[in-house]
């Protein structure tokens, strides 16, 4: 699993940061990617990456503020022009369906693919054999969701050479062993699945939080996850300023990661008032509370391998 930030700014675009858009790359897992929020010019940001809109499978919208949705109409239209034919599903709060459908209708945008729009409430909003996604309302100035993304345990890996050494022939018996079933050979010998398969590997877990004050829901969504992605619109010591706007400080984001037992924290939604030279100071404020913290920049890419978070440099 890889993450790529297309926009990490708050409120409106700046020269350094575009508005909110986060990509979860699942090319190995399912040959697609998911997008969390879609601020203005998200499709422009994609042009500077290897991302192909036709590979976009799902879009999750945290809330209806413009810096999180204004990029949707253009991206949806371009996906059609670029030969995107597979269905696309948008998950978001009440109002997202009316806004998207009205925009498409009035602009006479023709989509060559099936667009599904699901207005969500709290609870599990998506689940299949690979993933489950839970949503909770956070504490913002309007309804705003956070998401907990869980990859289910990966199936055991069959040690084919070991199985063949024990006399298992090619064919259905190998499949049974891989799926956890013991088999009996023609000579009466039992081959046990646990002896010819590697241990099940746990999947990854993410908490992707929308705009929010410090709140219990953020901690619950982030419980023991590999990575928390949290806003940090304000710096330490400005809690009284952040609260009326429904936002959090860098130290409050770090406190969420600490109390939830998460392994890593990436902060985004950074106010334009912070100059590039001040980002390291912001990070150090967070480090006073939580030991593994990164301030995301536009186009930054990260890879999670065996619980280790690594930034990818190209």
Question: Which structural traits does this protein have?
Answer:
17 strands, seven-stranded mixed beta sheet, 25% helix, eight-stranded mixed beta sheet, 314 residues, alpha/beta, 26% strand
What does this structure look like?
With about 325 residues, the chain is α/β, with parallel strands linked by helices. It contains 11 helices and 17 strands. α11 links the parallel β14 (about 265-270) and β15 (about 295). It is globular, with a radius of gyration of 22 Å. It starts with a strand and ends with a strand.
Would you tell me the overall average pLDDT? 95
Secondary-structure-derived class = alpha/beta
Overall number of strands: 17
Name the helix and strand elements from N-terminus to C-terminus, one letter apiece.
EEHEHEHHEHEEEEHHEEEHEHHEHEEE
Low-confidence stretches: none
Helix content: 10-25%
Helix tally equals 11
Q: What overall form do the CA principal axes indicate?
A: globular
Strand content: 25-35%
Biggest sheet strand line-up: 6-5-4-3-2-1-16-17
Q: State the distance separating the first and last CA atoms.
A: 17 Å
Roughly how many Å is the radius of gyration? 22 Å
Question: Main beta sheet: strand number and arrangement?
Answer: 8 strands, mixed
Helices and strands, with pairings:
Blueprint: E1 2-7, E2 21-26, H1 27-30, E3 32-36, H2 42-46, E4 56-60, H3 66-69, H4 72-81, E5 88-92, H5 96-106, E6 115-119, E7 123-127, E8 131-137, E9 145-151, H6 160-165, H7 172-178, E10 183-184, E11 190-191, E12 205-209, H8 216-221, E13 227-231, H9 239-242, H10 250-260, E14 264-268, H11 279-287, E15 293-295, E16 301-305, E17 308-312
Parallel strand pairs: 3-4, 4-5, 5-6, 12-13, 13-14, 14-15
Antiparallel strand pairs: 1-2, 1-16, 2-3, 7-8, 8-9, 9-12, 10-11, 16-17
Helix pairs in contact: 10-11
